Amino acid sequence: MEVIPAIDLLEGRCVRLYQGDYEQAQTFDENPVSVARQWADQGATRLHVVDLDGAKAGHPVNLPTIEAIARAVDVPIQVGGGIRDRASTASLLQVGVERVILGTVAVEQPDLVRELCQAFPNQIVVGIDARNGLVATRGWVETSTVLATDLSRQMAEVGIAAIIYTDIHRDGTLQGPNLTALRELATNATVPIIASGGISSVTDLLSLLALEPLGVTGAIVGRALYTGDVVLKEALRAVGQGRWQDIPPDFGSSALA
User: Fold this and answer.
1) Which tens digits make up the pLDDT trace of 84-125?
2) What's the pTM?
3) Which of 129, 167, 171, 204 is the catalytic position?
4) Is residue 8 annotated as part of the catalytic site, yes or no?
5) In the chain, what is the straight-line distance between the N-terminal and C-terminal CA atoms, in Å?
6) Please, are residues 140 and 165 in contact by the beta-carbon 8 Å criterion?
7) Active site includes 129?
8) Which one is catalytic: 8, 51, 53, 204?
9) Which of 32, 36, 93, 130 is 20 to 30 A from 46 (CA-CA)?
10) Nearest partner of 183 among 198, 200, 165, 169, judged by Cα
């Protein structure tokens, strides 16, 4: 299973939100590029970058920072937040992003998702962010009437590369992933599922391994890495994927200095 560090961008800073609340943003580092290098140096095989400003604005805002991250690390990055048209998708891919994550448009413009999958094969991922099983949109500010399980089935049919599932009530809380919801989603979808939200320990990551046969292939870890509750090298060793084999045994911890 792939362990994917999260880098959330807000006004140029690396932050974490609590349950998606912009008013509860905690800054962990003023230099997201340095953070990206740190996770890559510690063995990450992929980075998950969210443009929080873009999610609210409806278009990418932190493109220069995203480009700087893509240039600074030699691992693929996936980016989401406010990507709601072909131009925004193309601009991110042009600056070195490997995969673009669509959220709101999956609910509001499913035909656009299909078109983008055809134009950019294997580079389109859909983020399904849910409150009580219903999909949230527009930077988690609005909640739709669409069930996460229904959207996952619909999106799997249009050619997306994967689904990132976030339980908003777990996001940033360190309360553990919603295994029941993930199992239901994976059972209904025919594409890989990446779990996000609430992961607080290596034990949480190990609990996700039980869902790997159903298609849960990765886990995004945010706050727990920044607080040191999860040490990336240890997490990679535990779940069996990463570049940790090349890292000296005494290489430091993942907690940010």
Assistant:
1) 999 999 999 999 999 999 988 999 999 999 999 999 999 999
2) 0.87
3) 129
4) yes
5) 27
6) no
7) yes
8) 8
9) 130
10) 165
